[in-house]
TrEMBL record:
SUPFAM superfamilies: ADC-like, Formate dehydrogenase/DMSO reductase, domains 1-3. The keyword Iron applies. GO terms for cellular component: membrane. Its cofactor is Mo-bis(molybdopterin guanine dinucleotide); [4Fe-4S] cluster. Belongs to the prokaryotic molybdopterin-containing oxidoreductase family. It comes from Pedobacter cryoconitis. Keywords: 4Fe-4S, Iron, Iron-sulfur, Metal-binding, Molybdenum, Oxidoreductase. This is Molybdopterin-dependent oxidoreductase alpha subunit. GO terms for biological process: cellular respiration. It comes from the Bacteria. GO terms for molecular function: 4 iron, 4 sulfur cluster binding; formate dehydrogenase (NAD+) activity; molybdenum ion binding; molybdopterin cofactor binding.
Length: 779
């Protein structure tokens, strides 16, 4: 059952644990969330150290949580703590005093470590010193910081062209480090800057920029408190952004209605027990969703068009009361052509394609018809669909009809996952920088930045496979486990000359590496960052465009860590030397100096060093929030977009699969082995199926199966999963990532945004074959 012992495993071991099914919850948070939050601190042996940090996390003057990007309240923060269960787990992960040292790597080969699960790998502790593995090596060995940068510089300077290097970024990277990182890449000579946006919300920016003039959301947190209707589609706040539920609760109390649209009836969509309120501890909490629509995977477009068709009917019966004709006339273009398309649609066809009953769609349309203050929220349930860009544009279409965008209590809200993924993009971490951005860089710094677009995540994987990229530098993250087509990606990573990972903890990307590899350990958000005897702060941007400071309070677990900004500066000096026109030492010595130059290059950061020191931070400009849609093609107008409904035909033995994460997980970091809200305990290798599909397929609940994908004529196999009967639309299945990333073809991408379409994977399910591992080894 093991893979070839000559190579470390790119995936989690193919073994089952001891699955126990518990009750599927109908509400989220409450006392269990509080207990789970603190249990992790005890498990890591840091109850005092960790609790002290929790009360500083997300507080004014404290440090920003390294988990989700949900914004902090503008007014007073909760004295009991502005964190959620997942944030506490992330903090426990950072605050641990367990160390991964050179002695650890001396005792454990890369091959042996790869036999562990991602959960086990992540529990080893914080990386404590820089490590290096030579070509053909089996163990990492210590390397000095100077020698690490020297080796990186030698590899980069040996490339035939700067475009043979790529610089990946995770969302945890601060604004200041992100700015320096992209600045170095541009001075080095490449725009190869793949980042985690390419896997989560690239679709949102691609859809929104040409329609409303900005690739971000348009609402503030206060808009949730004073709105009429909140629509949550393709997003699970209970696990992905638990603090969002407090905002939903407040909106409900002020009269808002909530529509939840998702293939699974997630607990965080149904109810909320606020652990900071007495009724959330001893009472039944607050019912969140007034209406739940169980849409099929990728049935969202049909559902949105069905809603628009019904709204059009309501408008005909009550002219001027449903659509905002003045807004349409003054702020939009393309309305007539948009309306004309509905002559070709029938409600019964759209309802069937969506998987939602006509009666339920009608009820949703009624809830929207005579309301103007409407907020649409979405997550990767939309952005990771092949037609995700079009679906988000269809949401904009609906809001334009209603005049429900760019007004208080109304607009779009892409719920970002990682804590500074939006800030990374604002700081020009972008493989496709605009001419305006590049002109500013050139004017401020005096060098000519490259104009050719670089590789995104999918592009860089293919480029490594084709020997077009020879060095991959990863600023945070877990590149292998976050990306699609695991076998293909692993082979690509092994071909490159050098892989470098800036990390806080060990992960599988350190074990599937280039011919040479370097691990550079760095500070976490909660660590005190001392430079020249003074504790520093950095800044981040929330998913609603608030820039605020973040200042750690915990003593670092090692004296041999280097902060991200100095890592970039020292790499730049080792690589560019006297050729550089930038004073990198100035940046290494002063975070204020970095912010001074950000202010010169990026609009909205005027008086950066002054405003970021305000405890509440500051909002970046957002014209669409004010109702001004400054689009490149249509001037001050927002265009209606014509889209089509997809044809999701399946072969008789095919199912659609969507990958998701457990409640004990943040992206590729596995905190535990339970998915409490979905009733899964002590197992990750499960496939959720409709009971009718289980019976029709000749399976039984609890049976062991193997999963297959055949995109592009290539057989991809994820072996040894357990069937779990669940409330899910027929012919739809859900599994956890990264265990099933192997089934997501590198070519299964979202149109225009080129993101992996991990929520739309055609699979076949077969009874488990104990001999399947031999076939996998041959792949």
């Amino acid at each position: 059952m093991e893979k070839d012992k000559k190579e470390p495993a790119a995936e989690n071991p193919y073994k089952l644990l001891d699955l126990k099914l518990t009750k599927v919850e109908k509400w989220a948070a409450g006392v269990p969330a509080v207990m789970a939050a603190f249990s992790d601190l005890f498990e890591e042996g840091v109850p005092i150290r960790g609790t002290r940090a929790l009360f500083s996390m997300n507080q004014k003057g404290g440090f920003d949580c390294s988990s989700c990007a949900w914004p902090d309240p503008d007014d007073d923060r909760s004295p009991l703590g502005e964190y959620c269960e997942n944030g506490a787990k992330a903090l426990a992960d950072e605050a641990t005093t367990k160390k991964v040292t050179a002695e650890f790597f001396k005792k454990n080969s890369v091959y042996d470590l790869a036999k562990l699960t991602d959960f086990e790998i992540g529990r080893m502790g914080r990386l404590a010193e820089p490590m290096y593995i030579p070509k053909g090596g089996t163990h990492y060995e210590p390397i000095s910081w100077d020698n690490a940068f020297k080796k990186i510089g030698e590899h980069l300077n040996a490339l035939e062209t700067p475009d043979q290097a790529a610089f990946y970024t995770s969302g945890r990277t601060s604004n200041e480090a992100s700015f320096l990182y992209q600045l170095f890449a541009k001075e080095f000579g490449t725009n190869n800057m793949p980042d985690c946006s390419n896997m989560c919300h690239e679709t949102s920016g691609t859809a929104l920029l040409p329609t409303i003039g900005i690739g971000k959301g348009t609402v503030k947190l206060d808009d949730f408190y004073d709105t009429d209707l909140i629509v949550i589609i393709g997003q699970n706040p209970g696990t992905n952004a638990p603090r969002m539920m407090s905002a939903l609760e407040k909106g409900k109390k002020n009269g808002a209605k909530i529509i939840a649209i998702n293939p699974l009836p997630e607990a965080g969509l149904m109810g909320f027990r606020n652990p900071q309120q007495i009724y959330g501890i001893i009472g039944n909490g607050v019912k969140l969703a007034d209406l739940y629509l169980p849409v099929k995977i990728n049935g969202d477009m049909a559902l949105l068009k069905a809603l628009e068709l019904l709204l059009l009917d309501f408008e005909k019966k009550s002219p001027g009361e449903v659509f905002d004709h003045q807004f349409i006339k003054e702020k939009t273009v393309g309305h007539d052509a948009f309306i004309k398309q509905f002559e070709d649609y029938k409600l019964e066809d759209l309802a069937e394609a969506s998987g939602v009953s006509q009666a339920a769609i009608y009820e949703a349309a009624q809830m929207m018809a005579f309301k103007k203050r409407i907020i649409f929220c979405w997550g990767m349930g939309l952005t990771q669909q092949p037609n995700g860009v079009d679906m988000i544009r269809e949401i904009v279409n609906l809001l334009l009809l209603k005049g429900s965008i760019g007004k208080p209590g109304a607009g779009v809200c892409p719920v970002r996952g990682h804590s500074n993924v939006q800030g990374n993009r604002t700081m020009m971490i972008n493989e496709k920088p605009s001419d305006e951005q590049l002109d500013r860089i050139q004017n401020v710094f005096g060098f000519t930045p490259p104009r050719k677009h670089g590789y995104d995540v999918v592009g860089v994987i293919k480029a490594m496979q084709e020997d077009k990229v020879k060095v991959l530098f990863s600023m945070g993250g877990n590149f292998l486990s976050a990306t699609p087509d695991t076998t293909y990606t692993a082979k690509a990573l092994k071909k490159i000359n050098l892989s470098v990972c800036v990390s806080t903890k060990l992960n599988r990307s350190h074990l599937i590496h280039g011919q040479e590899a370097i691990i550079l350990p760095t500070f976490s958000r909660s660590d005190v960052d001392m430079v020249n005897g003074e504790a520093q702060f950095v800044s981040t941007e929330s998913s609603m465009g608030i820039v605020q400071s973040s200042k750690g309070i915990l003593k670092p677990i090692s004296d041999n860590l280097v902060n991200e900004m100095q890592i970039v500066c020292r790499m730049a000096m080792a690589t560019l030397g006297s050729k550089s026109v930038i004073n990198w030492q100035r940046y290494a010595d002063s975070y204020d100096a970095v912010r001074d130059d950000i202010e010169k290059c990026i609009p909205g950061f005027e008086d950066y060093n002054v405003r970021v020191r305000q405890k509440e931070g500051f909002y970046l400009p957002n014209a669409a929030r004010e109702g001004n849609f400054i689009t490149k093609k249509y001037g001050d107008r927002a265009p209606f977009t014509l889209t089509t409904t997809p044809d999701n035909l399946l072969a008789p033995d095919e199912y659609l699969m969507a990958t998701t994460r457990t409640h004990d997980q943040f992206n590729t970091t596995i905190y535990g082995l339970d998915d409490r809200y979905r009733g899964i305990k002590n197992e990750r290798r499960v496939v959720f199926m409709n009971q009718k599909d289980i019976e029709k397929g000749g399976f039984t609940d609890g049976e062991k199966v193997d999963l297959f994908n055949y995109d592009n004529g290539i057989e991809r196999i994820a072996p040894l999963f357990v069937i779990v009967s669940y409330q899910i639309p027929e012919r739809n299945t859900v599994t956890y990532f990264p265990e099933t990333n192997v089934l997501v073809s590198i070519n299964n991408v979202v149109g225009e945004s080129n993101m992996p379409a991990s929520k739309f994977v055609r699979i076949k399910i077969k009874k488990h074959n104990p001999n399947i591992y031999k076939l996998i080894d041959q792949l």
